[in-house]
User: What shape does this take?
Amino acid sequence: MLEIAEMLPPNPSPLWTLVKQAGVTHAVGAMPKASRGNAPWSFDALARAKSAYNDFGFELSVLESRPTLTKAKLGLPGRDEEIETAIELIKNLGRLEIPVWCYEWMPVFNWLRTSTTAPARGGALATAYDHSIMSAGPLTEYGEVSEATLWDSLEYFLRAVLPVAEEAGVKLAMHPDDPPLSPIRGLGRIMRSISNFERLLELYPSPMNGIALCQGNFRLMTDDLPAAIRRLGSTGKVFFVHFRDVAGSVEKYVEVFHDEGPTDMLACMEAYREIGFEGVCRPDHVPTVVGDDNSQAGYSMYGRLFAIGYLKGLREAAYR
Assistant: This one.
């Protein structure tokens, strides 16, 4: 059965308590800060982080942060050193029995929004993206980077890390581009279509080469998200799920409460049941509600409780 998890920073906080009170027992974690001379991806740092989750009653099921991979993505000198750091991380995840690493292949920019104060239901604040604003921006210091460059660098990366992942028993779950548009300010982006994710799986066939199915991004790739879940899920390579929804088009959209978007969320949950998905699913990117803090837009504390409750209800309806 699909397990519900929540993204929790590596240091205990009131959020940990609220999530535990909501009945969640699985954590999606991040690398801790460097301390005592130990890099965030070192065994010692990750071991302490895992122990903190475990001591609080959480099972650390996914690591969803990464060391810098800019040179690796762009195929620049110094990429081998970055890839060696990723290899060290994967080995340590295996030693600590943390089964999934969620990574991405977005060069320079990670997830992008042009607003963190878009008006949402009842006066809540949502994140939004408008490509007409972003496209007016300048090129980055790296100039124009082609999609072909990114495909070549991704294949180089996978050939280096997947044999290590196979030996370590760690699944690599590729997160889609957010937004799934290319190019953005001269930078190509390749994880932006269902067919490109199928190409990813073919690039290096491995039981450890798979997908982080972030519904908000995949919803912008297709009008039938449940069908896309079944299509990609038939490969057995959906390793991790982000449960969220957006309203609008890929060039202009707003993130919405989990129960108000255009997607049939129950049909999505039923699709995960049909494909036999047994990994973790976390609610992602919630609007900021009254009394909450918008300093980390998309990850406010109280908005998550509504998302968790809604997700638990959907799971009960789909799996009963």
Q: What stands out?
A: The two ends are 11 Å apart (CA to CA). The first strand starts at residue 3 and ends at 7. The chain has one domain: 3-319. The chain has a mean pLDDT of 96.
